[in-house]
Write a structure and sequence with these properties.
The protein contains 15 helices and eleven strands. By secondary structure, the chain is α+β, with helices and mostly antiparallel strands. It has three domains: 115 residues, 2-Layer Sandwich (Alpha-Beta Plaits), CATH 3.30.70.1050; 104 residues, Chitinase A, domain 3 (Roll), CATH 3.10.50.30; 154 residues, Trigger factor, domain 2 (Orthogonal Bundle). Helix 12 crosses helix 14. The chain starts with a strand and ends with a helix.
C-alpha cells in the first residue's frame, strides 16, 4: 500500500491511497474460508461448500469489507506514525471522478480530504492580569440566608388575604373573546406560588385576594416557562406555548409559610442534636457554608474570564469548509447545510477553545492519572449517597460502584475532562497576576 499526502494549504490536504492485490488478498482469502465454515447451502454438508461458490455468492461484499477495513487501519496508522494532527476524520473526496469496478479491478486508488489542525502558540505570563472576584459574606447576606432557612423549616398556615409570598389554590377557567367561560376550554384546579410569578401586573392582581374572589389573568404571563404553565393548567407544553386566552382564577384557599423560630429546635433539625447551641454559633456556621458555597462561582467566573481573554488574544483559522462537510457526513441524524451554517459559529468557538486547552495541557505536561479518576469517582459516589441519606458503603462495594460508573465511556470522559479542567485552572492561578476583590452578592452575580 502506498499513501501520499498533498497539502492544499496550511489547513487542508488530500491523501492518495493506492491499494494492490498484495495488500488485501490475504484478508479476502481468510474471510472466504470463514464464510465457507459457516455456510449452509442445500446439497452441501456444513463447511464443505466449494470456495468458488462462496466467492461467487459473497466475493464482492467480502472484497469491499476487507478494503474498507484496510483503509481505516492504514489511514489511522499513517496519521499516527507521521504525527499529523487532524480535525475530525479524513473524508472520501466528494468531487473525485474515480470509478471503481469491483468485479474486475485488482488495484484501487482512493482520495481523502483532511482538515489539518492549525499551528499556534499559547503564552501564559504574569503580564496578563485578572481580578479574582469573591462574594462578600456580610451580615445582610447571613440574615437573608437565616431567613430563608427559617422559612424552609417553617409551618404552612392558612391566611385570609393573599400576600406576595403566598401559595394560592383555586380554579382556572378559560374565557372566550367576549370574556365568557369557553365551553370545552381549560378547567383546572391548581396552585400558583406568587414568589415564582415574574410579571408584576399578574402578581399585583393575585395579591390582596380572599377565598371566593375572582380575577382575570393572561395565560402567557402566569410563568415565563411554558413547562410550568402547562403543568399549572393541565395541558401540553406545545399548547401552553401557543395559548393566548385569558383565564378566570377563583381563589379557594390561601396558604402561607410561617417561618420557624431561630432557636435550638431549628439548630438541631439542621445540624443534629447538640452540635450547635447558640445563635452566634449558628450564624458562624452559616457564614462558613456560604463562603464554601460561592467558591465554585468564583472559580467559574475566573476561568471564564481567562477563556475569553485567551480566545481574543490567540488568533488562528480553521479548515471551515472541510469541517462543515465533516459535520454533515458524521451526524447521526440528517442535517442540512443550512442547519450547519446557522450553528457553525458556536461549534467553531467550542473547537477553538478545545484546541487552545489541549495545547496548554500538552505544553505544560498536565496529566490525569487513572488513580486520580478512581479516587474522584469514589468521592463523588460518597457525596451522592450522603445527600440522599444512605448508609455507609464499605470499600469493596465502593470500588465496584466506581468501576461500574467508569465503565460508561461518556461518564468516564466527563470525569477526565473535569479533572483536566481543574488542573488547567490551577495552572492559570500560578501563571497570571491576580488581584482579589470582594463584591456584594448582587454585584457579583450581575457581573457573573
Amino acid at each position: 500500500m502506498n499513501i501520499t499526502q498533498e497539502n492544499i494549504d496550511e489547513l487542508n490536504a488530500v491523501l492518495k491511497v493506492k491499494v494492490t492485490a498484495e495488500d488485501y488478498a490475504p484478508k479476502v482469502e481468510n474471510a472466504l474460508r470463514e464464510h465457507q465454515k459457516k455456510a449452509s447451502i442445500p446439497g452441501f454438508r456444513p463447511g464443505k461448500v466449494p470456495v468458488g461458490m462462496i466467492k461467487k455468492m459473497y466475493g464482492k461484499s467480502i472484497l469491499v469489507d476487507a478494503i474498507n477495513k484496510l483503509l481505516n487501519d492504514s489511514l489511522y496508522n499513517y496519521l499516527n506514525e507521521n504525527k499529523i494532527e487532524v480535525l475530525g476524520n479524513p473524508l472520501p473526496k466528494a468531487d473525485s471522478d474515480i470509478h471503481i469496478d469491483w468485479d474486475n479491478q485488482k488495484e484501487f486508488e482512493f482520495l481523502y480530504e483532511m482538515g489539518l489542525a492549525p499551528k499556534f502558540n499559547v503564552e501564559l505570563t504574569a503580564k496578563d492580569k485578572f481580578t479574582y472576584q469573591t462574594v462578600k459574606i456580610d451580615e445582610d447576606l447571613v440574615n437573608k440566608y437565616v431567613s430563608d432557612i427559617a422559612k424552609r423549616y417553617g409551618k404552612v398556615e392558612n391566611s385570609d388575604v393573599s400576600e406576595a409570598t403566598d401559595l394560592l389554590n383555586g380554579d382556572f377557567v378559560e374565557l372566550d373573546e367576549a370574556g365568557e367561560i369557553l365551553p370545552g376550554g381549560i378547567f383546572k384546579t391548581s396552585s400558583v406560588f406568587l414568589e415564582r410569578v415574574k410579571d408584576k401586573a399578574t402578581k399585583t392582581a393575585l395579591t390582596g385576594l380572599k377565598a371566593g374572589d375572582k380575577v382575570v389573568l393572561e395565560a402567557q404571563k402566569l410563568s415565563d416557562n411554558p413547562v410550568d404553565t402547562a403543568t399549572m393548567l393541565g395541558i401540553e407544553k406545545e399548547e401552553a406555548e401557543k395559548l393566548t386566552s385569558k383565564l378566570q382564577f377563583t381563589v379557594k384557599n390561601i396558604s402561607r409559610l410561617a417561618a420557624s423560630e431561630v432557636n435550638q429546635e431549628l439548630f438541631d433539625k439542621i445540624y443534629g442534636a447538640g452540635n450547635v447551641t447558640t445563635e452566634d454559633a449558628f450564624r458562624s456556621k452559616i457564614k462558613e457554608e456560604l463562603a464554601s458555597m460561592f467558591v465554585n462561582d468564583s472559580e467559574r467566573k475566573f476561568y471564564n474570564d481567562v477563556v475569553e481573554h485567551l480566545m481574543n488574544k490567540i488568533n488562528f483559522n480553521l479548515p471551515t469548509e472541510f469541517l462543515k462537510r465533516w459535520i454533515v457526513a458524521v451526524n447521526e441524524k440528517p442535517v442540512t447545510p443550512e442547519q450547519v451554517e446557522s450553528e457553525f459559529e458556536g461549534y467553531s468557538k467550542g473547537l477553538k477553545w478545545s484546541l487552545i486547552e489541549n495545547k496548554i495541557i500538552k505544553d505544560n505536561n498536565i496529566q490525569v492519572t487513572n488513580e486520580e479518576v478512581i479516587e474522584y469517582t469514589k468521592q463523588m459516589i460518597l457525596e451522592q449517597f450522603s445527600k440522599y441519606g444512605s448508609g455507609p458503603m464499605d470499600a469493596e462495594e465502593l470500588n465496584k460502584t466506581a468501576q461500574r460508573v467508569l465503565s460508561n465511556k461518556d461518564e468516564a470522559k466527563k470525569i477526565y475532562e473535569k479533572l483536566y479542567g481543574e488542573k488547567v485552572l490551577t495552572l492559570f492561578k500560578t501563571k497570571f497576576t491576580i488581584e482579589n476583590k470582594e463584591l456584594s452578592y448582587d454585584d457579583f452575580f450581575k457581573k457573573a
